[in-house]
Amino acid sequence: MSQSKTAGPVPEDTKAEKEQEQRSPREIRLVMIGLVVTMLLAMLDNLIVGTAMPTIVGDLGGAEHLSWVVTAYTLATAASTPIWGKLGDLYGRKGTFLTSIVIFLVGSALSGLSQNMNELIGFRALQGLGAGGLMVGVMSIMGALVPPRDRGKYQGMFAAVMALATIGGPLVGGFITDHLSWHWTFYINLPLGVVALAVVVVTLKLPKVRNNARIDYLGAVLLTAGITSLVLITTWGGQQYAWGSKQILGLAALAAASLIAFCYVEQRVEEPMLPLSLFRNLNFTLVSVIGFIVGFVMFGSTVFLPLYQQIVQGASATNSGLLLMPMMFGMLVVSLVVGQVVTKTGKYRIFPIIGTVVMGAGMLLLSTMDTETSSLTSACWMIVLGAGMGFLMQITMLVAQNSVELKDMGVASSTATLFRTIGGSFGVALFGALFNNRVTETMKERAGDHPAAGGAMKDPGQMSPAALKQLPAPVQDAYHHAVANGMHTVFLWGAAVAVIAIAAAVFMREVPLRGTGKQDTPAEGSLEAAAI
């Protein structure tokens, strides 16, 4: 069945394009301060809170519910991301962005006031609900303010924030926990959030949006059910429940049914939550695939690389954020350079190709690490991986936004963010299953008969350096080799997955970067216009 014509916002895209061109660099820079602070807020939170979790459990108790503190936040963030994007398109990006910041700050304050673990889990879900709109708001507002060709000048700021948050988050969390209290791991969001609110309220001027279209409530419910089921599968699978258990299979069935029903509904409503017509655009579909794989590789790597460095290379866990510095350095430098080149040339197609190849090469190099690999060598391979992701992190969002009209900027931004998030969940889950299986196999081969080896084989991914030191030397040696073998398997599979991204990048089209999105006519890069 054909879809009704989508009701567009007023004023139309053409007027917004003119306003985009008329904004001065000073106006844009002022708004960018608020956006950068908001992005820092979103990225720091989980990293800071993760460091404080042992202290929180010691104070509140409820260790058996510990995983839900993270899961509740992740679920709420992932499920609300596409909804925030659509609300911004329908009712105005500034209002929805400010609302998401307020919800995030209220959730942060209440989390800090929690008196027990159940309260903390509930308030973390509220915080995650707000967080779902932070990243989408940042990207869609930048898309509305800055013509695609000029965005490279600002992308470096966001890459720098990502690197700063990854490295500094655990350090800040450790400092707060040691010198203040765990409550301040949540309260620290409040001053940053107030600054972001004030800057955005004062500096951000966007055209008023008047749209009488009805919200696609059924689509929102079905999409939320599908996303929630997928995240729970990747969170629980192989951990709380076996992959073949009735719980995981039931969630898989629910995810499939919800997403199939969602696709059916979206083709029949006036204002779909996620217009499936966007996927008729070849470039949009391809960058969604690439974004999924970037999330898959990036989140999987950031989980398992520190484990290798701590267990095999003996690195300290105290400054865990510093362990990823080489990867963040490669990502930051390349992202800065790519942004400037895109701004000057207006060309971008070559970068996804280079990025996916370099990312795959980085994973392949990391798969060669063993018990004898030096810290310098592993750091070099991490720089290669980070460089590959630096080619891709901002370009995927740029291409997604350049593939749509301005009125769909929020949906495009939220979809790109969602694919990266879901990819990250699947990456951690698959890498975890591969790692655990390989470690268990190696331990059985090298120390299966030793009575002290049972603990390492029971939950191989949770063996801490301190606990490992308590084991006999032969078991320690076996575990070092087991972890190295596990990393070999994980990164080899990561390189194989990167091949899919390479294929997607090769088929991408070079569509001219314009002030906003495209007009309603089929353009280069769409399936209607691209001759394959």
From TrEMBL:
Query: Hey, which family's this protein in?
Result: Belongs to the major facilitator superfamily. TCR/Tet family.
InterPro entries under this entry? EmrB-like (IPR004638), MFS (IPR011701), MFS_dom (IPR020846), MFS_trans_sf (IPR036259)
Any one cellular component term from GO for this entry? Answer: plasma membrane
Which UniProt keywords are listed? Answer: Cell membrane, Membrane, Transmembrane, Transmembrane helix, Transport
As for subcellular location, the record says: Cell membrane
Positions with biased composition (Basic and acidic residues): 12-23
Q: Which residues form the Major facilitator superfamily (MFS) profile domain?
A: 31-513
Q: How does it sit in the membrane?
A: Multi-pass membrane protein
Q: What stretches pass through the bilayer?
A: 30-53, 65-84, 96-113, 125-146, 158-176, 182-204, 216-236, 286-308, 320-338, 350-369, 381-400, 412-435, 490-508
Annotated region (Disordered) at 1-23
What GO annotations for molecular function exist for this entry?
transmembrane transporter activity
UniProt-recorded name of the protein: MFS transporter
Q: Could you tell me which species this protein originates from?
A: Streptomyces kaniharaensis
Q: Name one Pfam family in it.
A: MFS_1
Predominant cellular place of this UniProt entry's protein: membrane
Q: Which domain of life is it from?
A: Bacteria
Give the NCBIfam families listed for this entry. efflux_EmrB
| Coiled-coil region list | none
